[in-house]
Request: fold
Amino acid sequence: MRGVILRETGKPVEVTGELSLRRPGPGEVRVRLRAAGVCHSDLSMCEGRLPARLPLVPGHEGAGEVVELGPGVSGPPVGTHVILSWIPPCGSCALCLGGQPNLCVSVPRRRPP
Reply:
C-alpha cells in the first residue's frame, strides 16, 4: 500500500509503497481512505512537539468507505461512507442535534466502541 510515513521526528516524511495493514481487531473497522487531512496535531507529532510512536503515518482525519469489520462489530456495514475524526461528536448537544456535529464542543468522557 502506498502512503506517507514519518520514520524519525524532525525529519521529512517520505512517500512509500511498502505500507501494510493488519486485519481489523475486535471493535475495529477498516476504512479505504478517499481523502485525508494532515492537521496541526499531525504536524506537532512530526516536529516532536507532541509525543508520537514511530513510525507514524500522519492523516488521522479523513473520509472513506468501510471495507472490513473486525470481530464483534455489527456496523456500520461494509460499503458505508464514513468520516474519521480525532474527537467524535457527542451526538446529543444542540449543535449535534441541529445537524452540525463538526462544531461539537461537548466531548463525552466515555464512548462505546
User: Anything to note?
Assistant: The radius of gyration is 16 Å.
